[in-house]
From TrEMBL:
Alphabetical UniProt keywords: Repeat, Signal
Entry keyword Repeat: yes
Record-annotated Periplasmic copper-binding protein NosD beta helix domain positions: 167-337
Key word Repeat present: yes
Renumbered residue ranges of the record's region Disordered: 369-388
PROSITE patterns (alphabetical): PROKAR_LIPOPROTEIN
Name this polypeptide is given: Periplasmic copper-binding protein NosD beta helix domain-containing protein
Signal peptide interval: 1-21
């Protein structure tokens, strides 16, 4: 046993000495030889470092940490700017928290890319990207979010999460909190006890959430106090308890929520029972606007949600103001659109235009809430019999995902250059999605 410990220590010291001396990639692409000034290297796990955390600690800005297939029992902290953390195989590189750690990956530096791997079984988050020291330390609020008290708002600026599978995590699958200028794309989330994808406390956000699947979560996508240039585009939010919410919450800073664009998403069949039960009991709803304002909902397909397709309500003392619901297709919902204000706080200026509607509560919303001209869509009165939410299951028991698409050329492409500000979608180019959007990658179907 003493000899084994000595050999392990010698190997680690050898790796550290090489990096401190300025080692770079040799002819075989591994981390051997001297690093030329300004050069970027690939650090391979486990060939060059025994763990992902060890490899990340050795990385310089611009380096690629490339992880071989295997199961890794660690919480990875990325605090060096412009590092790319990438798995060689999305389904076979697994960071498994074993319910013994809060987060799988925590990113606290700008320009970091997390790509092509799986994170699961963490008590809080699969991937957390944040400029908040309290959030990075894993201090959750009382109802799932992060109440950072008197901590000043500090943004992490620029990030990328791409081709990541996040499943069976206790709060959020992919969580961007107090972060700006980022992209979450081509990822899959399931089994989150709160939200599969969450964007919170940013203003202006300059964040794009596109081409993802969120299913079998309490909520598919949630944007809380997330305002200004935030685009949720082309996602499949099917088979959760609630498909999507955009809301204001006093627990986080930068209230109220304003100015998101939700376009070209499939939001359907969000009444799955084999899902984690959320504290507020939401179930059977496609879209919830809870105290959010000045948001645009364009060309979404909102179908087969047993309670309601889209609901607008107030958050305590925060009214929903000026939301525009335009050119969406509603089919098979309990009711298509409902305005509900159980407290004295009332919404105003919310409007409907050119939607395919069947029923609304109250009746005639399409004409009384038009933007700005009278709408030609019919909107007869519906009967809103809100179904009782059934009990859920532990997040650890949610069905495992199937194989997901790989990051292109994961083992041969160099580090990813994350832009300082992402290119934002042109909403006029975003089409109404088909009912089969991204179905080949999903477990839950719409019918």
């Amino acid at each position: 046993m003493p000899r084994l410990r000595l050999r392990v220590m010698a190997a680690l010291l050898s790796t550290l000495t090489c990096v401190l001396a300025g080692c770079g990639p040799g002819d075989d692409g591994s981390n051997h030889g001297r690093r030329p000034p300004g050069a970027h290297v690939t650090i391979r796990v486990p060939a060059d470092a025994p763990t992902i955390s060890a490899a990340v600690s050795l990385a310089h800005a611009g380096d690629l940490v490339l992880v071989a297939s295997g199961e890794y029992h660690e919480s990875v902290q990325v605090s060096t700017p412009r590092v790319t953390l990438r798995g060689e195989s999305r389904d076979k590189v697994v960071i498994d928290g074993r319910l013994q750690q809060p987060n799988g990956i925590v990113v606290t530096a700008p320009g970091v890319a997390v790509e092509n791997l799986t994170v699961k079984n963490n008590t809080q988050n699969g991937v957390l990207v944040t400029g908040s020291a309290k959030a990075a330390a894993g201090l959750p609020g009382q109802s799932g979010g992060y109440d950072t008290g008197d901590e000043p708002v500090t943004f992490l600026k620029s990030f990328l999460v791409s081709h990541v599978t996040a499943t069976r995590n206790g709060l959020y699958g992919i969580y961007a909190f107090s972060a700006q200028n980022g992209v979450i794309e081509d990822s899959y989330t399931s089994g989150a006890s709160d939200s599969g994808i969450y964007v919170g406390q940013c203003k202006p956000c300059h964040i794009v959430v596109r081409d993802n699947i969120a299913e079998l979560n309490a909520i598919g996508y949630e944007g809380t106090n997330a305002s200004g240039a935030i685009y949720v585009v082309g996602n499949r939010l099917v088979g959760n308890r609630v498909g999507l919410t955009t809301n204001s919450d006093h627990q986080e800073k930068l209230l109220p929520q304003q100015g998101a664009t939700i376009a070209g998403n499939l939001i359907a069949a969000n009444q799955q029972t084999a899902t984690p039960e959320q504290a507020d009991g939401g179930w059977g709803t496609g879209i919830g606007i809870d105290g959010g304002s000045d948001n645009q909902f364009l060309r979404n397909r909102i179908a087969d949600n047993r309670n309601a397709g889209l609901v607008i309500s107030a958050t305590a003392d925060v009214p929903p103001v000026g939301n525009r619901i335009v050119d969406n297709t509603f089919t098979g919902n309990g009711i298509d659109v409902g305005w509900t204000f159980p407290t004295a706080t009332r919404g105003r200026g919310n409007c409907l235009r050119d939607n395919e509607l069947r029923t609304t509560v109250p009746a005639r919303l399409a004409t009384t809430a038009s933007c700005p001209l009278p709408d030609r869509s019919p909107s007869p009165a519906g009967r809103w019999a809100t179904p009782k939410a059934p009990g859920g299951i532990p997040f650890t028991e949610v069905a495992a995902p199937g194989p997901q698409p790989q990051f292109p050329h994961a083992t041969t492409t160099g580090a990813t250059a994350v832009p300082a500000v992402p290119a934002l979608p042109k909403t006029a180019d975003v089409p109404l999605p088909s009912a089969s959007l991204l179905a080949a990658r999903a477990r839950v179907q719409t019918s």
